[in-house]
């Protein structure tokens, strides 16, 4: 979780962290968080580690904060709906930009390699890539500024000057991101949220989804959170992760394994234990198939690709 810095009050990161983690005794909402603060959000037996980074305030601290940012699987830009949300987004994006951290975009399809000799060779490897042949001199200048006179540059798609610059920046990092818009209980925030949504829709550069949230208290002093109901599921989807359930003699485990969507039965075995992978014999996959009442049982080998919600029973040679 990251936010811009506003000297009067915070955007609500600690309040949210505390709420999602089911209460953190040492967290102090309303007091500036100067060090990263950790919490665990549990959803359907899945644990998500949450980190509140200090508000992006001082260049002296930014380097440290960016180490945390680079480590995250997904960034939540936490925006306070009682302040101008677009300004906050601009502030955060310009800081991330300075650190060559780019949100929700793929790395440019450019491969740069130093070579021993032969000068600078540029290859435009598709019809679209050939449309930027006129940028050859610019690319050569970038190679020289990169500190070499011998290099091969392979370009696979049509790229802009900005994308070429990104490809040459050594510490560029590409992160998934979303927006959490806080304090949605305060007056006028519905209107402000609508403005934010229409701004995001219009922006073709920043493809980002946003979640409004409000944390309030009832008359008994109990905390109530409105919003973020589908957050965990969306995060799994955004990170291309699937849930697999293992089956043993004891039955089907309640707690899923979280794996990448392109994983195989072998990856599942490895995730459970290396020995299970080494002694793997075969697996039964129990899979829901449209139009069938009971799950279909499929006998699968080690390279069989698993699907979201598959139940897997693995048999070993020992
Ligand atoms: N009305 C309302 N106030 C909130 C909400 N969330 C947080 N606040 C208030 O906003 C203030 C700042 O909250 P924090 O959770 O400390 O914010 P933070 O982002 O952690 O702040 P820093 O650590 O200083 O960057 C506190 O007074 C909270 O009570 C909310 O959903 N609604
Ligand atoms: Mg805080």
Automatic annotation (TrEMBL):
Domain TGS: 242-315
GO molecular function: GTP binding; GTPase activity
UniProt-listed SUPFAM superfamilies: P-loop containing nucleoside triphosphate hydrolases (SSF52540), TGS-like (SSF81271)
Gene3D superfamilies hit by this protein: 3.10.20.30, 6.10.140.1070, P-loop containing nucleotide triphosphate hydrolases
Record-annotated G domain positions: 10-96
Domain of life: Archaea
Name of this protein: TGS domain-containing protein
UniProt organism field: Promethearchaeum syntrophicum
